[in-house]
Amino acid sequence: MSHGQALSENVEEYLEAIHRLSDGPGGASTTSLARRLSVTPASVTGMLRRLRQLELISYRRYHDITLTEEGQRLAHELIRRHRLAERLLTDMLNVPLDEAHEEACRLEHVVSPRLEQRIVATLGDPNACPHGHPMDLDANDVTISLLDAPLNVELGVARLENESPEIVRHLAARGLVPGAVVTVRGRDLTAGTVVLESSEGTNTLGVSIAETIRVWPPRRGKAR
Q1: What pLDDT score does 6 carry?
Q2: Which of 63, 186, 195, 215 has the fewest CB atoms below 10 angstroms from its CB?
Q3: What is the pLDDT of residue 121?
Q4: What sign has the CA pseudo-torsion 160, 161, 165, 166?
């Protein structure tokens, strides 16, 4: 089925949510979609029927939801526009990093292919959003979690997996953003803490936050 005409914002939100959940440990399900989008399971079921009619998902009741090839293509386009919008907001309009995600959620639905090209030209074709996510969604991920990183070695912060304003604000206030150089000085999984040292000083993070911070392996050095 051709999707030459613009999809509704609601359809795009579902495609993006399915893509993001599919990359997570629990996969995309009716329950996880309802929780992520703050809607009822009945609303999710109705939209899934529509997406299946549009040939954008493969879905069987009580099974994980997966995007078709066309659904994945459209989701990739939407997420790329989102990341470009974040870059535009932070680089050109000085929007704080912790506000960029929610603002970009609004902009991503109105950026046309022509405007996207202009944004790319203006920004100099960036290879990542300000949170560190690559513009090329098919790029190989060679980063590692802080929980898997070696101790007492300088590491470049590559990406913040959790883009919630509260978490980003917490990390940004401590200088723990993409491009920062950190050293893991201690890790106590029993206590649920990770001790980091950076140019901003020493910080103790909870494991749940630390595991969402991705760093370049030691041989990559400082994040690019």
Answers
A1: 59
A2: 63
A3: 95
A4: negative
Q: What is the pLDDT of residue 165?
A: 95
DSSP secondary structure letter of residue 177? S
Query: What's the gap between Cα 76 and its chain centre?
Result: 12
Q: What is the CATH code for 144-220? A: 2.30.30.90
Asked whether the domain spanning 144-220 has the same topology as the one spanning 9-67, the reply is no
Angle at 25 between CA 19 and CA 26, to 5 degrees: 80
Q: Is 67 helix (H, G, I), strand (E, B) or coil?
A: strand
Residue 186: enclosing H or E segment and its boundaries? strand 181-188
Q: Where are the domains of the chain?
A: 9-67, 73-123, 144-220
Q: Which architecture, in CATH terms, is 9-67?
A: Orthogonal Bundle (1.10)
Note every long-range contact of 101-109, with CB atoms under 8 Å and residues 24 or more positions apart, other chains counting: 101/131, 101/163, 101/164, 101/165, 101/168, 102/165, 107/81, 107/82, 108/12, 108/78, 108/81, 108/82, 109/9, 109/12, 109/78
CA–CA gap between residue 61 and residue 223 (Å, rounded): 43
Tell whether domain 73-123 is in CATH 1.10.60.10. Answer: yes
What residues are paired with 159 via a beta bridge?
Answer: 214
Looking at the DSSP assignment, which residues form a beta bridge with residue 194? 187, 205
The residues of the chain scoring below 70 in pLDDT are 1-6, 62, 219-224
